[in-house]
């Protein structure tokens, strides 16, 4: 039988080897495609991380500007700065500490005071009509009204006793940082844009073809022709939730990999689009550096050989383990988890057959009045009694001892290698004590007792049948003397104990 199993294993191993070789051939055929796809995703992930880093730089710059402007507006509102020259000095300090190139304080009905030390007629500026309301906001401007520069203006209202007094305006050239990063990393083959919540471009950096993006709604353009509908749905949700995301799409005539990242503290997002041709060039360069195909072939062949050897050895091991598991399952009583009757008797006989093994003791356990328990409490409760008893008995003795259920309410315990008579007596008393305090039931505790008969090997018998008869005779003595007690073979009466319930 074993030779036949080995032959089957070898046949199966050969079949699996052929399958593995075919699989490896297929794997090597697809290797180039899979590797290129992995490189593509790696480059895309790197691009996304770079945009998040750029966004963090811009966030820091904007948040610092906002904090400085809000502090200045609060001081002006509290009257700590009230004269014209003091306002000018405050704006100068704001421009120096806020990271902005221009700051203006405009008191409603008066001229504006700039950080450059001049006054400005605010009504002549292109953005004067936007200065209304009592909440702070961002506004892209083409002309700041002082230097002629364009950028992003942040407006912080100045309030005195809850009444609107004026505005602090700060201006940031938000493209400076983007210019440096774009020119260094992507060699003029990417665009950057700062986009408001409505998808309108507030700042755009790119070549003439890419600037077509500034002519309309950014979100509509990058979502107009995605290569994957699922990408479009995912990115739309991310834009709505102000989360980072990416998509492959067309921007003008160019295929672009477009990433978006929120600018923290604002409702704007930073958008970067990198030409797909540029990413492909980077991918090709990495492939040439790392695409040593022959190395992978050698690795694959070695892997086949190792897997085949592993299979040959592991198949035998798993076959033995499976056989052992099946034997264990066949030996187990499903209700109690103990050995069943056949397994219990077989294991005890095997122990007794080896004359070199030491003395032992056999206990037969018979649950008292089990029929009454089933009739009065129900068979499900009776099963619960046996299940709980099996679990508790397993925990009381060594894993090497043999414990089994040999009948409906009968169990057998054989303790191995117990040479001392005192130890045998102590183990019996432990078992007797257990049944004097054994209770079952989740809500109402039910006391369950048992009669116990014991016989010692080899003193009372040297083979299983004789040992069992001796223990069964002792069990009869325990029952005759009132149940709920232990009796050893050869004793006319059981050990100390009283009837259950007394």
Question: Can you offer a commentary on this structure?
Answer:
This protein is an alpha+beta fold and 502 residues long. The protein has twelve helices and 18 strands. The chain folds into three domains: 45-171, 2-Layer Sandwich (Beta-Lactamase); 176-279, PAS domain (Beta-Lactamase), CATH 3.30.450.20; 332-488, Alpha-Beta Plaits. It has helices at residues 2-77, 84-97, 176-185, 218-222, 229-240, 276-290, 293-331, 341-353, 370-377, 379-396, 421-436, 464-480, and strands at 102-107, 112-114, 119-120, 137-141, 151-160, 163-172, 190-195, 201-205, 245-251, 254-262, 269-275, 360-367, 402-405, 410-415, 439-440, 446-447, 450-457, 486-488. The protein has a six-stranded antiparallel beta sheet with strand order 3-2-1-6-5-4. Strands 8-7-11-10-9 form a five-stranded antiparallel beta sheet. Helix 1 packs antiparallel against helix 2, helix 1 (2-77) packs across helix 6 (276-290) and helix 9 crosses helix 10. Residues 493-502 have low confidence and may be disordered.
